[in-house]
Amino acid sequence: MAVPARFALRLKNTNSGFIWRERTGLACRPQVDRLQEEPITAVMSGLSRFGDGNPVPIRVAQVMGKMLGGGVESVVMNYYRHIDRNKVQFDFLVDADSTRVPEEEIKALGGRVFRIPPYQHPLRYRKELVRLFREEHWPIVHSHINTLSVFPLSAAKKAGVPVRIAHSHSTMGKGEFAKNLMKLALRPLSNLYPTERFACSEYAGKWLFGRNADFTVIPNAIELEKFHFDPVIRQETRRELGIADGMFLIGHVGRFMPQKNQAFLVDVLAELLPQKPDTILAFVGDGPDRPDVQQHAQELGIDDHILFLGQRTDVNHLYQAFDAFCLPSRYEGLGMVAIEAQVAGCPCVLSDQVPHEADISRKTSFISLENKSSWISTVLNISSQTANRQIETSNTCAEKYDISASANRLTSLYVSSAESANGWEETL
Predict the structure, then answer these.
(1) For residue 201, how many C-alpha atoms fall within 13 Å in the half-sphere facing its CB?
(2) pLDDT at 174
(3) For residue 136, what are the CA distances in angstroms to 44, 116, 195, 285?
(4) CB 8, CB 427: distance < 8 Å
(5) 123 Cβ contact list (under 8 Å, min separation 6)
(6) Tens-place pLDDT, residues 86-115
(7) Distance between alpha carbon 148 and the CA centroid of its chain, in Å?
(8) Which helix (H) or strand (E) holds 367?
(9) Sign of the dihedral through C-alpha 282, 247, 266, 368
(10) Could you tell me the pTM of the whole model?
(11) In sequence order, what are the residues at sequence separation of 6 or more whose Cβ sits closer than 8 angstroms to the Cβ of residue 366?
(12) For residue 68, what pLDDT is reported?
């Protein structure tokens, strides 16, 4: 039977272990280079087909590690909500001990969740990944676990996955000795298995892949309009939190872990209160270090000046309520929460370990963690000013974090990567 002209193509790349028929994702074992002469009707996974007028999207395996409600998960889910799901779909590979997997939303959007052994069991972890990659035939595997990406991407290469993306979301710093040793041991292997390299910032990319490495910056994009300052939301949110008009509210958003260094802010508050007694510190987030931070505040006798708000779905509203935002991280790949705060017009005080790419307002202070007195004086200076909470929304530094444009760009990158890696050649 003659093939419709639009399906005629020559499949060139058989080195990856699979032949991918153009716009179908139908996987075949390597065969001789030949012109396909049967109509394309079945789809196992992956690449779009248009034979019946209904496109089937490329399926991308997103390797997430542990989903615990952290920032990386939020970034990937935000892209998933805004990406063109007629062209690209996500499947999530998560460690079995993950505690905050938005499974219902993923399924509602058309994705799937695969729970795998935790990476702390490397042999079982890799074996299960190889099995999944061979069975599911994803054309793209996108790993978000930084230096640990060497494990899923080596499994993907073994299974013949043609497009393997390593994504750098973070760096390293003081305070995590064992984790840092592992990062230093694995970092030299970071360029062995990916076919492409992504990073949330120039700093994070150079840290993982090398100063002269070729990588693409994929910003941790957001819905900018959701964060724009609104005085009505500010008043409503402060009222809900019990913050009077004259009180000074410092905010922090982050998972309670050594990297985020929340205990430092408790110490700053303790020395700030004698000079600014109407100050309240609000922590948004949860994590293993939260009990220790709470105990530290109690020991200093200032726990009545601290709000532990836990995980929240209204963080964009909370930024409106803050008078200042502080991020004393020991290290960051970018510091997306600081960008969100600035879009809300909130003055920011950040550790000097946060990349300067996070400054989109040109009004952000970067201060060493060794200089606590400078943190205190900077925060006091913010409290004495009448802040103009508007930010220039036309600022190109802010616009590059717009999720709509960024999701369209990521869609194009996925499609072009799949096409290039699979060597499609139309014979029209």
Answers:
(1) 19
(2) 73
(3) 8, 14, 19, 35
(4) yes
(5) none
(6) 999 999 999 999 999 999 999 999 999 999
(7) 15
(8) strand 365-367
(9) positive
(10) 0.79
(11) 350, 351, 352, 354, 356, 359
(12) 87
Q: How many residues does the chain have?
A: 428
Q: Among candidates 14, 16, 12, which has minimal Cα distance to 133? A: 16
Candidates 325, 340, 329; CA nearest to 382 is 325
Q: How far apart are CA 156 and CA 145, in angstroms?
A: 14
pLDDT bucket at 20, cuts 50 / 70 / 90: very low
Tokens found for residue 379: 């925060």
Mean pLDDT over the full length of the chain: 85
CA end-to-end distance (rounded Å), the chain: 18
Read off the pLDDT of residues 283-326 as tens digits, 9 standing for 90 and up.
Answer: 999 999 999 999 999 999 999 999 999 999 999 999 999 999 99
What phi and psi, each to the nearest 5 degrees, are found at residue 209? -100, -15
pLDDT of residue 422: 66
How many CB atoms sit inside 10 A of residue 18's CB? 23
Q: Tokens in use for 128?
A: 């299960």
pLDDT of residue 400: 86
Are the C-beta atoms of residues 7 and 39 closer than 8 Å to each other?
yes
Residue 157's nearest CA partner among 126, 119, 186, 178 is: 126
Q: What are the structure tokens assigned to 411, written together?
A: 């869609």
Within 13 Å of residue 189, how many CA atoms lie on the same side as its CB? 14
**141: pLDDT strictly greater than 70:** yes
Query: What are the C-alpha distances in Å from 121 to residues 142, 166, 184, 252?
Result: 21, 21, 20, 34
Q: How far is CA 21 from CA 27, 44, 168, 351, in A?
A: 7, 11, 31, 50
168: helix, strand or coil: strand
